[in-house]
Amino acid sequence: MSSDLALDLGSATTRVADERGALVLEEPTVVAVECDGRGLLGFGREARALGSATAGRVRFERPVRHGQLVDIALGEELLVEVMRAAGVSRLAHPRVLACVQSSATHVQRRALDRALRRAGARRVRFVEHPVACAIGAGLEIAEPSGSMVLDIGAGTTEIGVLALGGIVTSESLAVGTDDVADAVRALLARRYDLVVEPEVAGQVVRLVGAGERARPEGEHGEANLEVTGRRGSDGAPHTVVVSPEEIRPAVDELLGPVVSAAVRCISSAPPDLANDLLGSGLHLSGGGSLLAGAAQRIATGTGLPVHAVAEPSRTAVLGAARCLTTFELLGASVSSAPRR
Q1: Which residues contact 264 (CB under 8 A, 6 or more apart)?
Q2: Is a pLDDT exceeding 60 seen at residue 255?
């Protein structure tokens, strides 16, 4: 096992990779705790399985929201389990390179630094999300010409124009695919009196996107979706049929602010770098890049060609893994937590 690890602590999914670029952990960022206490019983898929088998005696918690630790104590417990599952033992104290938002404050970085050290990290450093995504997408960010990445995650959207090894301009939005799922849940409750879990709503959004991508060019029409939950009026199990067109407005509510932020990011870049982007285009990553119509909407709104990356949900952690052996070359793009 490598002594160095890259971490992407996402709002929905936590990923860990080693310096060889091998993914060693990919689990939902969710924990199970006892309803009458604060003890952590499990995390990730294990937590979800535990919750479904204990008939309401366990509740789910998400200690990360919009890319930040919102419950420090529970987040530290989660990271202990994450590090253990990634192969960290009492005798092995790895260096950890963690992805952070470009807008993360000193306080937020110190909180994550402290949590990771308590979880067993020997040293903690940070790489900002746009940098990690650019490297994960295979972009040559050390060059003087400009490149651009747009990463739509579950809780945050990160946008950056990069050149000479660092971020030139960036935008960070506290919106992501979780917001689309919330909008879908509200729609189903309002229109069909159907109550569904967040995971079901997220699956609906993903299926709509998958259906559009799978449709041959020029072919119109998409299959309707069966969605199962319970009726809000009496709690009885209930199934409804939803058309993809009903889901589309929820996706548009997310993409509107994303496109506006991307345009601001381009507009604030130096003219020569902005001109470079007409050729190099915009590289789209994150789970939200798979949303139906996302690439086309962003291309139309920004006027740039949009390129999809190979593994959109894993781009950041794989980019951070490549950084593990090039700390010195990246200079200010990799940093430590500020100390008081």
Answers
A1: 171
A2: yes
